[in-house]
Amino acid sequence: MANRFAGFRRFSLRPLVSRSPRSVAGQVFVLQVALVVLLVACGVFALALQSERDTTAEAKRRSVATAETFAHAPGVVAALRTPDPSKILQPATEAARKAAGVDFIVVMNTKGIRYTHPIPSLIGKRFVGTIGPSLAGKVYTESVHGPLGHEVQATVPIKDGTDKVVGLVSAGLKVKNVTSQVDRQLTIIVGAGAGALVVSTGVTALVGRRLRRQTHSLAPDEMTRMYDHHDTVLHSVREGVLIVAGDGRLLLVNDEARRLLELPPDAEGRLVSQLSNLEPEMVELLVSGREATDEVHFAGERLLAVNQRPTGRDGGIEGTVVTLRDSTELQAVTGRAEVARERLKLLYDAGLGVGTTLDVRRTADELARVAVPRFADFVTVDLADAVLHGEEPATTATDLRRIAVCGVRNDHPLYERGRLIDFVPSTPQARGYGSGRSELVTDLSTATGWHAQDPERTKEIIDYGIHSLIAAPIQAGGVVLGVANFWRAKQHEPFDDEELSLAEELVARAAVSIDNARRYTREHALAVTLQRSLLPRALPEQSALDVGYRYLPAQSGVSGDWFDVIPLPGSRVALAVGDVVGHGLHAAATMGRLRTAVHNFSTLDLPPDELLSHLDDLVARIDQDEQDTDGAAGVVGATCLYAIYDPVTRRCVMARAGHLAPALVHPDGTVTFVDVPTGPPLGLGGLPFQTAELDIAEGAQLVLYTDGLIEDRRRDLDVGMELLRDALAGHPDRSPEESCQAVLDELLPGRPKDDVALLIARTRGLASDRIADWDVPLDPAAVAGMRETVSQKLDEWGLSELGFSSELVLSELITNAMRYGSEPIHVRLIRDRTLICEVSDSSSTSPHLRYAATMDEGGRGLFLVSQMAERWGTRYTPQGKVIWAEQALPRITGQPGLGTLSGAP
């Protein structure tokens, strides 16, 4: 530091003064001295003005702060509402005035009448100043000639709790007090200016000396020529050049940089942050001073490659040099390629993600989701209501149902999912649906035809920010199925013609899948209709069982599961459940044939094992016949379980052919699976079927089901059976219908992959007072006594009207048993929904109905039986046969209990 001062002492102004003022150094020295003097004088003047302005501003700020503080002080509003506000407010204002250092604080009402003043005689007089802005709720400052002289004052409103102005407060200072502060500061300012002039002159001398050294004593013409060459090169290159100082000021800009950045003519010398036309990222880079190599930044619509290097590495001026290259055209080509790639990717994703199922609604939803947000902000899909049912759509855009809505937000005003819409002919949707050509609406606010659909909702859509629409008809095979609507909101540009083509391609790919789903829906509906027509539409009336059932078709299509409830003679009921492996119409048709066969075989009143044997032979013949037909498939994997329940004996006989064992819910709520011998599936042949007999308590539930209920890819068969046991156990009093629903809820939470047939039957027992039986000796004379006994029983039951027909039927059946059968002969009467007469013997000879000739003495007995009874027939037992006949009960009023069983609800 001492060396520096020594050098300064050795420095003399004489060489500068002695040089000719025509030299560069002399001219610069004279100019700099003049500028320094001028700048010091201007600085002194500016400081004086600034000091006065700052002092005045401080006076205004203090006045405003004092007035606002007093206006918001607690108790001021309450004081204004008292009869004598001055009594409370005058002491308070004087204390606040002295504490705040202001000359006055005046509180007044809304008419400008003072409540307080430093001069008490002015209380009650009108305030000198403007109160209008403050009555409007604003803070107002002004300079006025008041009671204290020339004053600077601020007036603020006093508001109550409802934001109503109830009074005004004005605070301020006298101007002479403000001016006195300025006068005190002016001496300091002038002294500082003089000192600055001395220092500046010395600094100017040093600058002149340094200038001689830096110009290397070049003559003015030489320096002019050098800078001309510099400017020529700088402004002729096709690369923008900027020099930015360390403080962020723009020192130099060549013509190319000015063009690329669209800088104003006065850009040089201004701070980069003050250049409003620059992008924020570009400003951040230029003022950061960091190195940058080929960074890409936007400048308006141009894309610039920017390089930046610091300049102060070798002790030079701190700053940066920036070069700019225009890469807009290259980026445009790259951008177009990127857009094309994104569109191809969108179409590729649509090909993979749309049409994954044969479900119309799911396919439409996939189309909407794949386009949001990559192509549109909102997508809605409207299909003809007939398409959802697999039918052909109408030719006009009426009865279109919105089945898919997807968007970037959920609070949109578009029509909701499930709404049935009739588009008016002027809408883009109706025009596109009718012509089969897509409609592009770039500005929805001016589309009057679209507004006609729903003026109120269209206004909501436009206010929401949705501005552009593409309505693309969904058509396949020349048939328009619906319309896909693509919507864009304010954050994106409107659709253009290229995007219209993309939307058409996107919808065309989805249209094929939607049409396939529609055709599948139609075929599936037909198959389900066929299958349901082959299943029981209603259960027959019977008294032995209380039955509940469920049938659920497979998700992938119809299958071959079936069930049946078949009334048999003697109040017995047959239960059948079967399954044909496979799906489709062939399985459904095969199921119908098997169910018909079971019905036919049940009319023969065969035991379960014999019935399954006949059914096995039938399936084998069906397989043989279909194998002889080209392209036909045989019945593979058909299973069946057949059970007969007798309410008189409360016994159940059952057999199964490859089917799952039934479950039995006992009256105490425990569940067991009946041990029924397993037979081979139907159609294999060669092995006999075995039966299982069990006594079933009254009120127990017999559960028959198909494998679709318990088998699943996610669990083993044993797990499924345990789940079934858990769903049934512990609820002995639950009705069959409730049990069916509980089982499905527990085992099938979703749609099943396979058909499910479930049959639950609660057993009932026939009361002993509804049954009468007798042993008949092998003696024709016993017939008369038997008629009398039966007649007495009918009188006891209140069925005297059936006495004659019953005696005739019973006489013929007993006579036939005596003539053609063998002992023992047994007679049984059952009063159920009908009157059943049964005659059994140990012979297996089969009686048959015939027409007797005119001269024949016999052969008319069974003919009479067939005429008197509604039905009659023969069934065979291990001990022989039973010939039975049923007669309808007469309708008798006032005699309850006929046709019901014990245990019936």
Automatic annotation (TrEMBL):
Q: Which UniProt keywords apply?
A: ATP-binding, Cell membrane, Hydrolase, Kinase, Membrane, Nucleotide-binding, Phosphoprotein, Transferase, Transmembrane, Transmembrane helix, Two-component regulatory system
> GAF domain: from which residue to which, for each copy?
355-524
Q: How does it sit in the membrane?
A: Multi-pass membrane protein
Where it sits in the cell: the answer is: Cell membrane
Does the keyword section mention Cell membrane? yes
Describe the location of the PPM-type phosphatase domain by residue ranges.
545-763
Main location class: membrane
Keyword Cell membrane, does the record have it?
yes
**InterPro entries in the record, alphabetically?**
Bact_Sigma-Reg, GAF, GAF-like_dom_sf, HATPase_C_sf, HATPase_dom, PAS, PAS-like_dom_sf, PPM-type-like_dom_sf
Q: Which residues cross the membrane?
A: 28-49, 186-207
Tell me which Gene3D superfamilies the record gives.
Answer: 3.30.450.40, Histidine kinase-like ATPase, C-terminal domain, PAS domain, PPM-type phosphatase domain
Q: Which PANTHER family match?
A: STAGE II SPORULATION PROTEIN E, STAGE II SPORULATION PROTEIN E-RELATED
**Protein name as it appears in the record:** SpoIIE family protein phosphatase
